[in-house]
Amino acid sequence: MKKEKRVISLFLVLIMCFTVLIGCNQQQTPVETPTETPKETPSEAPTLDYPKRPITVIVSFAAGGGTDLGTRVLLQYAEKLIGQPLTVLNIEGGGSEVGVTQLKNSPSDGYTIGGFNSASIMLTSQRDAQYDPVEDFETICLQVNDPRLFAVRADDDRFNNIEEFLQYAKDNPKDLTIGTSGAGTTGHFSIEALNHYAEVEIMPVHFGGAGESKAAFLGAHVDGIAQTVGEVLQMVQDGQAKVIGVLSEERLEQFSDVQTFKEVGVELVMNSARGYVAPKGTPKEIVDFIAETFKQAMEDPKYIEEMGRMGLPIKYLGPEEYKQFNIEEKKSFDELVKIVDFSE
Q: What's the confidence (pLDDT) of residue 342?
């Protein structure tokens, strides 16, 4: 009997120990086999969650000018790639200052970007503006670099080339009037710079954008127009205007028979560069996404053909290159303003 009791007691002890061991093992399992979060590989990284809604593109000039038309062409092709509507908002005034200032003050979330051209930099070299052309924006890309030129009406027989144009200006001080897209624009600057370098007195007349200036020009309210290739090409093709001189290093393909001002001894070269920027603080990944999308759109053969018909020379520069381009252009304008009189 005693032996049986000892066996039973031993059996009970073994059962208790086994139960304790199972309990301990259950408590220790989470510690001994922790669940690890798998490391994220580049291919598994989350994609950019943008854009979710339409994007507004501010154009700081009136509809109908080279900047506006070039923007609308690009957006047609980019919209197919970006997956959301790209809507133009024209905000004219102040030689682009009004629209650019509104862009500066817009949310930096990628849903408001804007056109940005040489005029937007030029005016900051002439006067205190409500924005800094370099520090207040994130550069996206350059789209167009368009040489500036002077044109007169096709039926104006007073001058047919640069020499006759400049001689008339010398013989008739302050009589010759040239329309611009607005005070402070590169068109305005080109007139004042020509006055300085050619020692003439041509009078700039400012309008609220290229469309208005072209209408005034065709209506004979001004003698000529200071614009770019893209803004006068159609008028020339329609027999309404003739180009009398271009402000480029070499003659232009579209007007191969027209002299450059450098050919007659006037050392003046000027282009109108047009690109896109976003408000300061817009995330880099969004800026890069838009830049790459625009680049792909600009490589579309149909886009290239359409821009060619409009006379808009395509010139793509990415975010960093375009930023440096703007820095250099700002330095150039700052230097030129020191020798050109804008007091009118």
A: 62
Count other Cβ atoms within 10 Å, centred on residue 267: 8
Helix and strand numbers, DSSP H then E, in the chain: 11, 10
How many Å from the N-terminal Cα to the C-terminal Cα in the chain? Answer: 128
Least confident stretch, 85-89, 161-165, 236-240, 329-333: 329-333
Q: Where in the chain is the domain with CATH 3.40.190.10?
A: 147-264
Instruction: Return the C-alpha torsion angle 193, 61, 315, 322, nearest 10.
Output: 80
**Rounded to 5°, angle at Cα 246 from 301 and 302:** 10
341 pLDDT tier (thresholds 50, 70, 90): low
Q: For the domain covering 55-146+271-337, report its CATH number.
A: 3.40.190.150
Task: Quote the CA–CA distance of 77 and 184 in Å, as a whole number.
Answer: 31
Helix (H) or strand (E) holding 115, with range, is strand 112-117
This prediction's pTM:
0.74
Identify the architecture of domain 147-264 in CATH.
3-Layer(aba) Sandwich (3.40)
Task: Give me the mean pLDDT over the 312-333 stretch.
Answer: 95
